[in-house]
Write a structure and sequence with these properties.
It contains 13 helices and 16 strands. With 402 residues, it is α/β, with parallel strands linked by helices. The protein has two domains: 106 residues, Enolase-like, N-terminal domain (Enolase-like, domain 1, 2-Layer Sandwich), CATH 3.30.390; 257 residues, Enolase-like C-terminal domain (TIM Barrel). It starts with a strand and ends with a strand. It binds D-gluconic acid and magnesium ion. The site of D-gluconic acid (GCO) has 10 residues, from loops. Catalyzes the dehydration of D-mannonate. Has no detectable activity with a panel of 70 other acid sugars (in vitro).
Length: 402
């Protein structure tokens, strides 16, 4: 089965998405997501200039060999741009193989390990009361797990807050929005938020929180400790993880479960975190970490150390990644949870898909492949719109982590 063509489709039905479509001489095609939020065009160029030319004529069934060719052959390894381009090719090829065999993708991975996939939604509020209500709306909508982000008293504009409920979108402007940050205010406030959440909603619902790389390891340890009475499902990205050892300090001081990895690209970013059992959940996902071929490797390695998966699933990952991730989640033995931010209706229409939400779970259907397609005529009606992610500064103007 020869690859006869490959094209990049950029569309912006509410937000930007980059999609790779690979065609074969047997009429079967596959699609993969290559979206890198705020840096979309760099992946488009990488695919068009350096990847597509070497794909033409190759045997589409040789997924592993093509992965190794693109990874080793580039010489310049890893990085978000390279690994997203490889992910797009990899997912499109898995899609093709599964379609050609007439099987849903999870069957090629090893078959179903579960009926449905536990997901968590994003509740955002501008203050404590607002956030307690927002979490309530998710519980009413059937969610069993909810991530709670809240405005912090005394901080004007912080991450993930008060910009719409179900359709939160951080890439909100042509040039980066500047947000303000103060960790001491946040550390004082957050336990009061989770105390109120547990008081109002009880302990059955799983609650999660994202620190978005804002704390030092010591501060993260303090936060984890102060949240212990509220039984979090996880505390995510409490500190940056370029230095994997940083998590040792956090781990020594708290039993709050730790999750990290949405910005990781390969197993090398997570190796020490996993094998030293410094985290509980690994957040790498298909589009971020080189596709199913590499994510599967990370998950298998993680399973040796009782680390479970918790794939990134924000709206900047297209429905193509969501569909492929759900097939992965349906199979992976050490599954933890899947992030699920609903896409807009415009996005859903451009990417018809075979997955559905019911009572806090997502279910994939039995359509051959990963079950997500692209309506190219509709996609063409939404031209690219430059958008960038925000940045954060401390109150004195110092640049901080976002
Ligand atoms: C999450 C993330 C996102 C990111 C976004 C960046 O946990 O879902 O932190 O909200 O900020 O994916 O593009
Ligand atoms: Mg996050």
């Amino acid at each position: 089965m020869r690859i006869t063509g490959a094209r990049v489709i950029v569309t912006s039905p509410g937000r930007n998405f980059v999609t790779l479509k690979i065609e074969t001489d047997q009429g079967v095609y596959g699609i993969g997501d290559a979206t890198l939020n705020g840096r979309e065009k760099s992946v488009v160029a990488y695919l068009e200039d350096h990847v597509i030319p070497v794909l033409i004529g190759r045997d589409a069934r040789r997924i592993e060999d093509i992965w190794q060719y693109l990874y080793r052959g580039a010489y310049w390894r890893r990085g978000p741009v390279t690994m997203r381009a490889i992910a797009a090719v990899d997912v499109a090829l898995w899609d093709i193989k599964a379609k050609a065999l007439g099987a849903p993708l999870y069957d090629l991975l090893g078959g179903r390990s579960r009926d449905g996939v536990l997901v968590y939604g994003h509740a955002n509020g501008s203050d404590l009361e607002d956030t307690v209500e927002a979490v309530g709306r998710y519980i009413d909508a059937g969610y069993k797990a909810v991530r709670a982000q809240s405005g912090v008293p005394g901080i004007d504009l912080a991450y993930g807050v008060g910009r719409g409920d179900m359709y939160y979108e951080p890439a909100d402007a042509t040039l980066p929005t500047e947000t303000v940050w103060d960790t001491r205010k946040y550390l004082r406030y957050l336990p009061t938020l989770f105390e109120a959440l547990r008081k109002e909603h009880g302990f059955d619902v799983a609650l999660l929180h994202d620190g978005h790389h804002r704390m030092t390891p010591r501060e993260a340890a303090q936060l984890g400790k102060s949240l212990e009475p509220y039984d979090l499902f996880w505390l995510e990205d409490s500190t940056p993880a370029e230095n994997q050892e940083a998590f040792r300090l956090i781990r020594q001081h708290t039993t709050t479960p730790l999750a990290v990895g949405e910005v990781f690209n390969t197993i090398w970013d997570a190796k020490d975190l996993i094998q030293e059992q410094l985290i509980d959940y690994i957040r790498t996902t298909i589009v971020g970490a080189g596709g199913l071929t590499h994510l599967r490797r990370i998950a298998d390695f993680a399973s040796l150390w009782s680390v479970r998966t918790g794939c990134h699933g924000a709206t900047d990952l297209s429905p193509v990644t969501m569909g492929a991730a759900l097939h992965f989640d349906t199979w992976v033995p050490n599954f933890g949870i899947q992030e699920y931010m609903r896409h807009s209706e415009e996005t859903d229409a451009v990417f018809p898909h075979d997955y559905r939400f019911d009572k806090g779970m997502l279910y994939v259907g039995d359509t051959p492949g990963h079950g997500v397609d692209i309506d190219e005529a509709l996609a063409a009606k939404y031209p690219y719109e430059p958008r960038q992610l925000p940045v954060a500064r401390l109150e004195d103007g110092t640049m901080w982590n976002w």
